[in-house]
Amino acid sequence: MEIVEQGPRGPRWAGAAALLALLAAVPLIVVLTRAEDGGGPRPVVSRDPVREDGDGPRPVVSRVPVREAVSVTPNAVYPAAVVEGGTGTMRVTFPDGSRAEITYPARLSLASLGARPYVGGTLTGDGGAEFRALTAPLYGEAETAAGRAMLRPLTANVSVWPGPPGVDAAGQVLLFRFGDWRLALQDEPMGMTFEQRLAWAANLRGTHGPDGFLTLSAGGPLRLARPGETRAGRLVGPQLWLGGLSRRMLVVAPVPGCGRLGEAPVVLDARHAIAGSACRDGYYLAASGDRGFVRAAVEDVRVRPAP
User: Can you tell me the distance from the alpha carbon of 137 to that of 125, in angstroms, rounded to the nearest whole number?
Assistant: First the structure.
């Protein structure tokens, strides 16, 4: 049995090209890195990319302190992968706090894709119920900013930013900060009122767990979508998005009762079209990317609850 972990490394050239296209307006990036030897034989979840190819003498835990105006480190967690006999295994935590064990063909290198949370939420008030989705931008604040200035701080951990460049139908973005994590709430063109935005900021809570994953909870007039919940024919319950920098991406979502889900798809960004999906054993899988990756992800990946 082999436990594989890796410290920081530079982005692949394909990934760098995608990032440069996204952040062409960011004027200065200074990244300071420091590696520390973990020295232990057990798997360790890292915020840094991991290797699953078997190279390297032993697990290494490393942190990448970034000292810059806008961070461009991945807004994702990289679970430890245990590789044995061509099969990879990793444990994950969904935004609602439920845990699962994912097994997959090691050649897919799912742990090295990085995992990000997604969940929808509904705010109820005098004006009715307002639904919005929470996503984790691949490069956090840098991706949200895209070289532009923040519009204003809203609270100590929430700020207001312009909508995505070139998307006229999108409203402003509320960016939540929970430890190292950044979550984006994409508003609609008409926008929520100031009081509604304050209600989101006051009632959404995020906990950074010891495994590196982000667990979300809500109170007051705010309710987060439950596993398997749909809205307008879309799955909006808690999900994990694996990947996103390259064409390859896999969405995993707990769904109690696959038969009730029907054809409800997940919502991804415009760069990733769902090419294949399946729902079995209480979990929904949707994959984007090359044909070989999509086929293996949909047919060979298995997910089961973990304690």
Answer: 28
Q: 212: phi > 0 → left, psi -120 to 50 → alpha, else beta; which?
A: left
State the Cα–Cα distance between residues 268 and 249, nearest whole angstrom. Answer: 10
Rounded CA separation 118/97 (Å): 12
Please name which of 249, 247, 228, 246 lies closest in space to residue 237, comparing C-alpha atoms.
228
| Domain ranges for the chain | 1-307
Using the Cα atoms of residue 5, residue 7, residue 13 and residue 17 in order, give the sign of their dihedral: positive
Q: Which ranges of the chain would DSSP assign to H, the alpha helix?
A: 13-22, 140-145, 194-203, 291-300
Could you state, in chain order, the average pLDDT of each consecutive group of 10 residues for the chain (307 residues)? Answer: 40 40 39 35 52 46 42 86 95 98 97 96 90 94 94 97 83 96 93 95 95 97 96 92 92 88 69 86 93 96 95
Q: Three-class SS of residue 121?
A: strand
Report the distance separating Cα 119 and Cα 235, nearest Å: 9
What is the Cα–Cα distance from 52 to 89, expressed in whole angstroms? 10
| Amino acid, res. 194 | F
Whole-model pTM: value is 0.78
Distance CA 65, CA 35 (A): 10
Return the structure tokens found at 223: 């309710």
| Concatenated DSSP letters of 37-100 | ----SS---BSS----SS-SSS--EEE--B-SSS--S-SSBB--EEEETTEEEEEEE-TTS-EE
**Phi and psi at residue 215, in whole multiples of 5°?**
-110, 135
